[in-house]
Amino acid sequence: MTDQTAVGGLEEENRQLRQALANRPRTEHAVGIVMVLLGCDEAAAFRALSRLSQHVNVKVRVLADLLVEQVASGEEADEDLVTVLRLVVDGRP
Amino acid sequence: MSPALEGAFLELGRILLDQPLTTVLRRVADLAVDCVEGADDVSITVLRKGKPHTVAFHGELANDLDERQYSLGFGPCVAAAQAGQTLRIDDTADDDKFPDFSRLAARRGVRSILSIGLPDPDRSQAGINVYSFRQPALDGQAERSLTLFSRYAAVAIGNAAAFSEATERAEHLQIAMQSRAVIEQAKGILMARYGIDAVQAFDLLTEQSQTVNTKLRVLAEQIVAEAAR
Q: What pLDDT tens digit does each residue of chain A (93 aa) get?
């Protein structure tokens, strides 16, 4: 490893970490919300979110925004969405 | 230029960044012994937040004498690192610059001392200190050699320090992310439970944290663990 690539690699890692840190809150809010909706632990909640994200080809961040918007306004979370999340978390399609 | 200096320059230019800073500094101290005529012990002083620390040394006595200067609050290595200048004590038995410290050094067998500040005061305040048991020892030639050596060493030390700082920052960010995740998850749980937004959830969390006198992070961990049950 040359010095230049070593430093470049670290700079890139720091950039990505900062980006992830900036996107993190919304996703983690959604994880907490899914935990309550499904009554599951955080690993399962995250799994549900990322599987749904793959199935419908929508970024986790966008799904998270949707969920956060729904519950934060005091609405009940969309029933269909909860059903789908429950389905994907169990490993069924 | 002496063969020792030439060899040292070649090696300093090749020092790789992805090794621990302490290894680089220790190697710089070892190289200085070879490069400076009359050098017996060598140490490197770095000022952090104005406080001097010996970060590497060749020879236990150099470390010892540095520490004595730090507790006295003055001495050639402190002055050199602070001001980036050169301080030479030709004879510790007859010195009026740092008489107290020189007497102390003389009792330990050190006859002359040479300290040079590293010429990069913006990036770091540091100095290289050379101690000699011989007399006459550290002369004008030794000073020229150490001056030249320290200019090259400063670059190697500066790069290694920058690299180690970047590595540390990356580690801190990782820790920050981990600790933040659980707080954000707890907020999400409160949001879903009470139909509130992220700001209200955070207020609720801090309020509870004060009421039950528990750290925010610990409380968040509890909320997440309970919800997962």
A: 556 677 777 778 877 777 766 667 888 999 999 999 999 999 999 999 999 999 889 988 899 888 988 888 877 778 888 888 888 887 644
pLDDT reported for residue A3: 63
Q: How far is CA A48 from the centre of its chain?
A: 9
Distances from the Cα of A21 to the Cαs of A13, A15, B38, B179, B213, in angstroms? 12, 10, 54, 11, 28
pLDDT digits (tens, 9 = 90+) for B120-157: 656 668 899 999 998 777 999 999 999 999 988 888 88
Residue B96 contacts A where some CB pair is shorter than 8 Å: no
Interface test with A, best of B16, B167, B175, B184 (most A CBs within 10 A): B184
CB contact under 8 A, B188 and A30: yes
Q: Angle CA(B79)–CA(B84)–CA(B85) in degrees, nearest 5?
A: 70
The residue of chain B with its CA nearest to that of A14 is B170
ipTM > 0.90, yes or no: no
Chain A residues whose CB is inside 8 A of the B219 CB are none
